[in-house]
Amino acid sequence: MIPVNSLESKACRGFTLPAISKVKINSLYLFTDILKLVIFTIILIVFSSCSSSRSPKSVDKDGYHLIFDGKSLAGWEYDPVYWRVENGALVGEVTSSTLLKRNSFIIKKDLITRDFDLKVEYRVSSYGNSGINYRSESIDSLRYAMRGYQADIDGQNYYTGQNYEERGRTTLAYRGQKVMLNTPEGSTPLKDNIKNNAWTKTAVTGSLGSADSLKGAIRNEDWNEYHLIVRRNRLLHYINGVLMSDVTDNDTANRKSSGRLGVQVHVGPPMKIEYRNFRIKEIL
User: Fold this and answer.
1) Whole-model pTM?
2) Torsion angle of C-alpha atoms 264, 267, 268, 272, degrees rounded to 10
3) Neighbouring-strand partners of residue 12
4) pLDDT < 70 positions in the chain
5) 117, 228 in Cβ contact below 8 A?
6) What pLDDT was estimated at residue 22?
7) Total Cβ atoms within 10 A of residue 207
8) Three-state DSSP class for 161?
9) 199 and 183 Cβ atoms separated by less than 8 Å
10) What separation in angstroms does the CA of 272 have from each of 49, 94, 157?
11) CA of 214: how far to CAs of 99, 174, 239, in Å?
12) Cα separation of 231 and 148, whole Å?
């Protein structure tokens, strides 16, 4: 019998059989360990690549990550006539020589909003009109147009805080309202359920305060913070920490559970809207 740990060659039936050495066995173990390390490294690189967009460096202590870096409009679709970066803010401006024939949006690429929290600071000129669209869709036949839920903004604060559906059911909740939206009966056209630019299949279920009293929480021509909390069919719009509108959308024929994000410059007189610290926390 030939010991496996012999360091000498042994003769067996006329053949010279090399001994299996400890060195060779240890080399085999070393090769196996290196192979495992290589495989682990490859897996780690692939995982890091897939998760780079949610790396700890891009997420704050509350779980939000920036969707506008304050430096460029990379990652957005927009008409450069109306949108630019200025002093760290995303700026939309309409001048007397660039008046709009229809609303124009800057739309975030590669982001689908479902359930989320969103916070952004905004400042709007006195006669400005804008809004934050979410769970919305782009319209192929109209470049830079969107259809969907909108957190409304205007410089006179007639509409700021309300929930408006762009190119859809129109006003869903005025500022100060808690509402439930219902499905229309039958297959009637959308316009048949709209009156005075408001959805008629709406039940007001509560009050958050009068529109005028809530208006007092909004600063004119100064920075305000919009906070959207969107969960399933519940849509909450806060400004400066005050709840402005509360929608429960039970309209199964027209509600949306996901869609794109964008902000608007509106048809009308010259205006300017600024956004900064644009951040979102996606709820899985």
Assistant:
1) 0.80
2) 20
3) 15
4) 1-38, 40-57
5) yes
6) 52
7) 10
8) coil
9) no
10) 38, 6, 15
11) 31, 11, 9
12) 16
